[in-house]
Amino acid sequence: MSVKQTVVTMDEMEAKVEKLLKQSGQWEKVLGQLGACGTNTERVQVVLGVEEVLPHINPSILRQGKSLERAQSLRTAGNQHFKAARYDQALACYSQAVCFAPQRSTPSQDSTMLALCFGNRSAALFHLKQFRSCLKDIDNALQAGIPPTSLHKLLDRRGKCCLFLKHKAQAIAAFEEAKHALLNDCSLQDKTRQDMVCLTDQFIAKCRSLPDSVEESEEEDMIHEPTPKLTAASSHILSAADCVVLKEEAGRGRGLYAQRDIKIGEVLIVEKPYVSVVLSDYCESHCHHCCSRCFVPLPCQSCVDVVFCSAECRQTASQYHTAECQLMAFFHQAEVRLGHLALKMVAKAGYSYLREQQPALEGSVLGRTGLGCDHQGVYDSEDYHTMYHLVGHCNKRTVKDLWSRALRAAFLVKCLEQTGFFPGTHDQGPVMEEKRLEDLSYIGGHIMRHLMMLPCNAHEVSEMEVNWSEPSMSRTLEIGSAIYPVLSLINHSCDPSVVRHSYGDVCVVRAIRGVAAGEELLDNYGALYPVMSHDQRQSHLQDQYFFTCHCPACLHDWPLYMDIPKDVMHFYCHKCRGPVPVPSLQEAGRTDSMACRDCGHRQNIRNVILKVGSLEQEFQDVLHRVIFSLEVNPSTLPRLLHFLRVVDRHVHRPVACHNDCQEAVKMCYAYKANAFPRKPVPTTKSNKR
Predict the structure, then answer these.
(1) Residues 6 or more apart from 577 whose CB is under 8 A from it?
(2) 229 touches 270 (CB < 8 A)
(3) Residue 451 contacts by C-beta under 8 Å, 6 or more apart in sequence?
């Protein structure tokens, strides 16, 4: 949206500063000072104290605000598209015009242009038959102060939207208001006014002929189904189910464990992140606060670089967006990536809170398992303490790595300094200068801590891009990143027991394998065994997460999906969970039992073979419809879950049908979560969501 300027990226800045320090002979000295530091505050202070560094971490930030001229230009372009019936292009231009149009922050300020842009956009939405979205923009235009000469058009459009939606009372009220506005519009000639009033009366009569009660129509701007709720929430981990408990295990640190047997498909976590960030490619189409796709985007009231899906999200975002508002365009061009998320975490907490909480944050709290919990032992995702105590592996990093993160933290905190985040920013004098350096170092230390923690703990916010002509080619897009303190407690397995999906930026975690009581919940850190070799997985996990994986898939070097035999099946031994082979034709005629290949225990698996076999054909039929037609109806998921539970309980893994069923279940869940373009399922009495 905003004008481009020449901006040095973070990577370029780091390379340039390192080159200058080496040329001046300061490089080894600075690394030595950094290596001797014991805290992140001290590390950032070292960087801020190097004269050669300061000119390169104190950027001149372009502050581009609203522009009446730019809004008018975009609105004119939208009008041209509208006249040519190119309503999609008109909609895009009007949405950009809305972002540039000056806002009314006080009653005396003029926001006529904003109201006209909203009104124009409502017209485009009407012609695109997006009636609910049209109604939202009509309300936006009225609130912004639509000129009296345009009022009757807007109210007439509201009446027609309500008529199409079969909202009888609202339609009549809107047309009556439109009629009243016509009668009071002095700019119209009497004959024109009379004709328009007559037409409005005809619409009112048509509305009165509608039945009083009609079935509610499908939401046209639905991007996901209603966010699932926890059946019973934990009183200890506020975003988790009561069957989940936090424990610590030697060598693995903290983790989440099952307090009872958990079935495949159970919802285990529903977590709103502490903060999320929309990636730059999606900042015009997705809400800056909740990452939901915006069908009627509302602009920030100050900057032109973010949009919101609702007035509620815009209001909630004000607690942190004030500090980042002026930085958005610069951050996108400087490619700060996770640095934006780190700064946003600090911005949401606020200067006063971080200063007041300094003793509590730096002190010991309730032992290792209780890190991040309050004094009642509650782990709350909205509490800054939860993130502060997530692992960043500072002690495993090289001095060069610490230098990189300290430099970036110093850069970000100097950006933050320009936004008024710090009290007394413009005061002068040696005492204030010393206080400012202390403040910058302390807040920068928090940012540095997050820059080390986020690569190991941040998660993507995703959206399924649905390809209706070729559903198997649908793909999952990363539209944002977020920090989920509860989700971050789940350790890794190349064969995970949970799967996560995004509803806006709310992360919903479900069981994708059966989890026994006492067993640990396991997520995947981007290293799934069916699609990545053992060596590739270990390298990825060591480089980014600093550990070696010892999950069963790694210990037994499970094959890639394409190498798993499709026609060979083994069943679990009742005694040791080892593989029990299916009897050959000759063996089947002589015995009812087979021996486990690990422990030798013999058992009869005839009934299990028959049970799995009886479900196989039905599963293949459902699988084909999901993968190739994305046929997701109320019966699809229960049938897939039933088959997966049977296979998961009885069939020794790895086995292809387990992977296939898991992927089909994941696809169904992905379609329920953020998905676009979404094709509504007809709402009939026999088929309702």
Answers:
(1) 652
(2) yes
(3) 338, 339, 342, 405, 408, 409
Two tokens, residue 341: 């998320």
Q: Read out DSSP for 321-380?
A: HHHHGGGHHHHHHHT-THHHHHHHHHHHH-HHHHHHTHHHHHS--STTTTTT--TT--B-
Residue-level pLDDT at 222: 73
Whole-model pTM above 0.85? yes
CA torsion sign for 104, 107, 112, 115 is: positive
Count the Cβ atoms, other than its own, within 10 Å of residue 284: 18
Q: How far, in Å, CA of 63 to CA of 400, rounded?
A: 33
Strand, coil or helix: 304: coil
- Distance separating alpha carbons of residues 294 and 480, to the nearest angstrom: 14
The pLDDT score that the predictor gives to residue 668 is 93
Question: How far apart are alpha carbons 226 and 289 in whole angstroms?
Answer: 18
Distance separating alpha carbons of residues 489 and 39, to the nearest angstrom:
24
Residue type, 157: R
Asked if 380 and 370 touch (Cβ cutoff 8 Å), the reply is no
pLDDT in tens, 467-512: 888 888 889 999 999 999 999 999 999 999 999 999 999 999 999 9
Q: Which of 638, 632, 625 is nearest to 673 (CA)?
A: 632
Q: Tell me 391's DSSP state.
A: -
For residue 405, the model assigns a pLDDT of: 97
Task: Name the phi and psi angles at 636, rounded to 5.
Answer: -65, -55
Task: Give the separation between CA 103 and CA 143, rounded to whole angstroms.
Answer: 11
DSSP 172-229: HHHHHHHHHHHHT-TTS-HHHHHHHHHHHHHHHHHHHTS-S--PPPPPTT--SPPPP-
Q: In what order do the strands lie in the sheet with 675-676?
A: 275-278, 475-483, 459-465, 675-676
Contact 43, 439 (CB under 8 A): no
Spatial separation of the C-alpha atoms in residues 413 and 44, rounded to whole Å:
10
Distance CA 292, CA 286 (A): 5
What is the 3-state secondary structure of 316-333? HHHHHHHHHHHHHHHHHH
Q: What is the pLDDT of residues 185-244, one digit of tens each?
A: 878 888 888 899 999 999 999 999 888 765 555 555 678 999 999 999 999 999 999 999
Q: Is residue 686 pLDDT above 60, yes or no? A: no
Q: Residue 148: which residues within 8 A CB-CB, separation 6 or more?
A: 181, 184, 185
Q: Angle, to 10 degrees, between the axis of helix 399-417 and the axis of helix 10-24?
A: 120
| Cβ contact 578:595 at 8 Å | no
Is the omega angle on the peptide bond into residue 530 within 30 degrees of 0, that is, cis? no
How far is CA 386 from each of CA 274, 318, 371, rounded to the nearest angstrom?
A: 9, 22, 7
Helix pair angle (430-457, 40-48), 10° resolution: 120
Q: At what angle do helices 606-629 and 636-650 cross, to 10 degrees?
A: 140
pLDDT of 121 higher than 90: yes
Q: Two tokens at 277?
A: 């960030």
What are the strands, taking DSSP E only, across 91-243?
none
Distance CA 97, CA 286 (A): 17
Torsion from C-alpha of 314, 315, 320, 322, nearest 10 degrees = 80
321 close to 288: Cβ distance less than 8 angstroms: yes
Taking the C-alpha atoms of residue 623 and residue 265, their distance in angstroms, rounded to an integer, is: 17
Phi, psi (degrees; rounded to nearest 5) at 232: -145, 115
> Looking at the chain, how many residues does it have?
689
